[in-house]
Input
Amino acid sequence: MRPRVAYFPDSFHEVNGVAHTSRNFVAYAQRHELPFLCVRAGSRTNLIDQQGNLSTLELPRSELAVGMEKDLAFDPLFWRHADIIEDELHRFRPDILHMTGPSELGMFAAYFAWKLQIPLVASWHTNVHEYAAKRIGWLTSMMPTEMVAPTEVQVEAGSLGLAMRFYALAKVLFAPNTELCDMLAKATGRRCHLMQRGVDTTLFAPGHRTDHKPGEPFVLGYVGRLSREKNVALLPLVERELATAGISARFLIVGHGVDEDALRKELPAAEFPGVLRGLALSQAYANMDLLVFPSHTDTFGNVVLEALASGVPAIVTPDGGPKYIVRDAASGEPETGVITGDSGFASAIASILRDPERLAAMRTAARAYALDCSWDAVFDRVYQAYEPILPMR
Output
């Protein structure tokens, strides 16, 4: 008998990796008719919805919620929903509580796991410590230059320590790559399992590409949040270096964020369609020649996998999760992209764009790699990891 899972995601309706994974987790449970309760924040007031074995409790944030991004917030008054959440947990009778991070929802999951004596598991989706260090510009801008780096290091270390104490409350942990799993296991003493990401290879496919006319500039794509922690400031530098090298290319930048206005000024020839979904997003991917993803903080990189499924090779950094998706020339496997430091992005892009045969081979290899990824395989492994901690039923 499959366990009854109550899932408390940090994010669900937003445009980010946690939300994307959460929506696919709910879809997996519904597809396999599993008893599943999703407790999440949203715009619909106290929505309790049941569709077969799937239950949803959606709760609004208050007007005092603190905005952390265009579509992300933390509500210090979210505790007003405690009674309705507890009532729904009593009705649903979960065997497992699964949280995704130290948000209001994660705090509720940890609290009710303790109160109701239900096993708690936690998945790590966001490098909150690195984000915290990069979001204190308002403070470091007032400091002497020599104090900026040490302050950021201290903030990152302190944030990581607090996060590890929170995650240690769980009996089993999940992370999207082996590097993070090792870090979590060492810091918390808990067993950590891989919870990677899947991709819809029907939605994201090379067939959505429209033919480019000869002589048109190459299309370099970026998909994601437009903010400092994604290292988007590198994109204008890359464009200038490519122009100096005689490469005609323009950027297609999909997403939104606090740095959008600055990027528009630095990249006047770029296209900014905003946040795209569905067919519009799949067409945007397919019409790229390369995905340029300079983030150092991503734990996995959903957009990288979506690009590969669309037959688009990716240029990524050697930090975070994307390096585990991309196969470069040194891997000994068919090449699906390049892993390089910031200073190597422009030269890597130029090398590929100057070699049509190499680019064509990389496009084929990228698609082949993505075809081996599926959401069912990801969540089947998650349910297998639940088994050892399930209470006697």
